[in-house]
Amino acid sequence: MATCRITVVEKATQNDPYNWWSAAIRSGESKAESVKDMVDKVLTRLGEGDSIDRLTLIGHGSPGNLSMGDGKGHEAGKHIGIGNQDEWLDDLDRLKGRFSAGALLTLRGCSTGKGQEGRELIELLHEELGIKVRAPTGPTTPLWIFGRWAEAPQS
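Above: the chain's sequence. Below: its structure in token form.
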């Protein structure tokens, strides 16, 4: 039984330098085309009895939203966000019970944690998964975030 650190990057297109560079500088990451695909890949990475210590999801973001396979579009099933929970919550629920004590979910997308929508999203994920969740309040690059981390529960 091991604890795992898993990174999933929104599948990059040739014209998407943010996600391409994010994937290029991280070894062992998975690439996801949708929220369901992301959860499937996370579960595939876990052995029997393994738990998740750190899960980092990287994609394009906006306040209260992180894309998993749709970039800056609005295709159903390809965003984790406030207002479309019916499209992704059942998929994320499959991860319940797979996190270790003290686990952290990081939503790494521009401004995902910003404002009321950002706060609602990280609080919803914290309540649903029972783990600490954080997301940046400002722009991100593959190496840095600008702004601060919004967290639930608050530190």
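The chain has a mean pLDDT of 89.
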